[in-house]
Amino acid sequence: MKLKLKIWRQSDASSKGRFVKYKLDGISPNCSFLEMLDILNEQLIGQDEEPIAFDHDCREGICGMCSLYINGRPHGPDDAITTCQLHMRKFRDRDTIVIEPWRAKGFPVIKDLIIDRTAFDKIIQEGGYTSAHTGGAPDANSILIGKVEADLSMDAAACIGCGACVAACKNASAMLFVSAKVSQLALLPQGKVEAKERVKKMVAMMDELGFGNCTNTYACEAECPKEISRSNIARLNREFICAKVL
Amino acid sequence: MALLGIFLMVFLVVHLGINLCLLRDDGGLWFHEAAHFMGTNYVVKVFEVVLFAGFIFHILLGIILQIKNWISRPVRYRVGNKSTTPFLSKYMIYTGGIVLIFLVIHFMNFYFIKLGWVDSPVPLLQGGEPDFFETARWLFTQPFYSILYIVLMVVLAFHLNHAFGAAFQTLGLEHKTYTPFIQGFGTVYSIVIPLGYTIIPLYFLIFSLVS
């Protein structure tokens, strides 16, 4: 495959970035998107140029490190995948691919395509603890949990915190992420004790960090690599209203 | 936003009920009766204050939220978002803005006459009250006004189409069984209510052209 790439280059957080054009030849359609960037970086190093900085870690869709806004979609032109699971066969020969970092006030650019997602850690920290006893592992059936609740909680817990929801949302809202984190605990008896305080603090932190407000466009759900449902956002709203009013 | 939106959507039904009285060939008897009740009943007068507050807060909150949302992404993307989303959901601030323009025109044509801020285009009733039946007839027989009214009703339909379901989602009222019904009802509401309003100018316009 022959490709034209337009990639955002920015030397550090304080400098002004710009798009730089690159040409690549001989890319296999079976190559992963990140491998394609590796090949480009090898070429750049060979030409004594600065390689492109981008986030990645497990490269199997689990860690949530890879990001990239590719041709107008977080994680590129496929559904329910992370960028590391995207393959070049999803593009056509001689395509132009525009690669941008995720844009949000809460996710400042550190270098090139790498963004700072510390904001998500701060929101999680603000959620606090659950009142689970320490010590030996409890008996499996000591706290009975219904199948439906357990499944919904596990579905919410599938969130890998990649931030695609923020990147896709026209308001740069982190509602899907926060709703998943609130839901996974609020649905279980262990998480109910601090549920009211947790939801209030996490929402307040989300607002403080400059994420936008949800206007129910559901782009977050459409782009989530783990297919986190918008029903979690409704649950977050419900939990928040109850915590504030009751 | 959502609570006020639902309140305004209920108001639209009541307003349509009164407007449809315009279609009766009774010289405005039913319409004047309804308008008189709405203008003199104390419960309605309390709701009128709540309604004005509802409009103002809904508009102000919408503008504040939009500004905050724009600030949340200081650097825009080079390539526009291609995520699969309901088309109308992305343009609520714009459809809302157009509905606001309509609201200003509507107030100038009716409510400001009642307040005495604007002169009535038609003779007043015997008691000195404005004749809104004749005012409406006069306005709707003018093609420009009628077409503008119909176009604005289409924009209102776009606004309501997303607003109905979104209001329930924002209030956390989501259920595996009931949400599809709410979404369906919202779609029907967003078509039927603006269509009901559209019938009135169409009736007067066609009637005036024929006669």
Q: What can you tell me about this protein's structure?
A:
The complex is a heterodimer of chains A (246) and B (211). Chain A has 2 domains: 98 residues, Beta-grasp domain (Ubiquitin-like (UB roll), Roll); 115 residues, Fumarate Reductase Iron-sulfur Protein, Chain B, domain 2, CATH 1.10.1060.10. In chain A, a hairpin with a 2-residue loop joins strand 6 and strand 7. With 246 residues, chain A is an alpha+beta fold. Chain B is mainly alpha-helical and 211 residues long. Helix content of chain B is 73%, strand content 0%. The chains are: A alpha+beta (246), B mainly alpha (211). At the A-B interface, strand 4, helix 8 and helix 9 of A face helix 3 and helix 6 of B.
Average pLDDT number of chain A:
96
Rg of chain A, please?
Answer: 20 Å
Principal-axes shape call of chain B:
globular
Helix content of chain A: 25-40%
Q: What is the distance, rounded to the nearest whole angstrom, between the alpha carbons of the first and last residues of chain A? A: 60 Å
User: What's the Cα radius of gyration of chain B?
Assistant: 19 Å
Quaternary structure state of the chains depicted: heterodimer
Annotated CATH topology of the largest domain in chain A: Fumarate Reductase Iron-sulfur Protein, Chain B, domain 2
Average predicted confidence as pLDDT of chain B: 92
Number of strands of chain B: 0
**Largest interface, counted with CB-CB under 8 A?**
A-B, 43 and 32 residues
